[in-house]
Amino acid sequence: xxxxxxxxxxxxxxxxxxxxxxxxxxxxxxxxxxxxxxxxxxxxxxxxxxxxxxxxxxxxxxxxxxxxxxxxxxxxxxxxxxxxxxxxxxxxxxxxxxxxxxxxxxxxxxxxxxxxxxxxxxxxxxxxxxxxxxxxxxxxxxxxxxxxxxxxxxxxxxxxxxxxxxxxxxxxxxxxxxxxxxxxxxxxxxxxxxxxxxxxxxxxxxxxxxxxxxxxxxxxxxxxxxxxxxxxxxxxxxxxxxxxxxxxxxxxxxxxxxxxxxxxxxxxxxxxxxxxxxxxxxxxxxxxxxxxxxxxxxxxxxxxxxxxxxxxxxxxxxxxxxxxxxxxxxxxxxxxxxxxxxxxxxxxxxxxxxxxxxxxxxxxxxxxxxxxxxxxxxxxxxxxxxxxxxxxxxxxxxxxxxxxxxxxxxxxxxxxxxxxxxxxxxxxxxxxxxxxxxxxxxxxxxxx
Length: 448
Known about the structure:
Blueprint: H1 8-18, H2 49-60, H3 84-90, H4 93-96, H5 108-125, E1 129-130, H6 137-152, E2 156-159, H7 165-178, E3 180-183, E4 202-208, H8 220-228, E5 232-237, E6 256-260, E7 276-280, E8 293-297, E9 303-307, H9 330-366, E10 373-374, E11 382-386, H10 391-400, E12 407-408, H11 409-412, E13 422-426, H12 433-447
Parallel strand pairs: 2-3, 2-4, 4-5, 5-6
Antiparallel strand pairs: 1-7, 6-7, 8-9, 10-11, 11-13, 12-13
């Protein structure tokens, strides 16, 4: 869209209409101490469109694309291969331009693919019902905590130390206003004693598996401990491909599952948009936030789809709304649904096996490097390594050698000195043997 600026005459006419002397008069209520002059910013003078395009292209060229170098970053956002068919289909105009269905009965195509999406999410998480998505995994986790507080009428949420710190901060920002949020200690590579923190004021326990360090957690003991105290277990999954191999959270006793679906059908995209997955037990469905697409039949007996059990502010009285979620990640839902449909059940499992095999080979290669230890004893496609030096310096040195080596644990947990020398690395089906060998060779050089 082109930028069409106002002319001086346009501005003069508008100011005269509202009775303002000049542009500055519009800001007269702003305290002078809060006003920053333009001279305080190092901004270039006005330039033509061609000059701006050149400048921005030069800046963009400094970025390194994930697919152009050996890339081992994860920690909640994963590089996977997305079939070309996915982008081709979601860019059809009837999908790409459709907006939120305020009149759902005439948006049958949208409601149908949302229904299929919900079915897929319920199946892979092992739950009974799923909604039509939320914004991303972190906001899905937040909504799960708020939902647990409503169901149990209790204020306290306990977060595992292995929960992704960004997810924990999201929960603390909002759920902390209506209750108490307590984080368990960070214990890299092992499960903390979270059961001892549960009391009769606990609404929920939030556990991620695989956790932020890549550790696969057994949710059953935590579920039993939570249920014994009348609390709910919220299972968080940031790498949804892991459910192609691991026992689903629903089978381990989870009451609510909050997950990030980015790995299926959605690229990295500089951090978004992503797609939050949300599933729960059927008995809790009326407390579930967001949209729910249901299947029914019309007066003629034909199958049709409707928005059902709508508990959003748009549809019912505000005081009875479960959240102010007003939409869902529609296009990303569709990408997820198409990609998972193309994979099928066997393909999804095969993809998960490929991921685990790649990560296992990477772990074997890296731990051959002198001074490198494996922090995570059991993992899916992501694990943490310990090194004899500060991980930041090591990661920077590897970047200079063309290896994007992973995510420093201290970047996510700056106040945890125990993780200073730890690097979280991930391998997916996109990593080749050559990538893995290059990583191992470069790491040996840096640490020598």
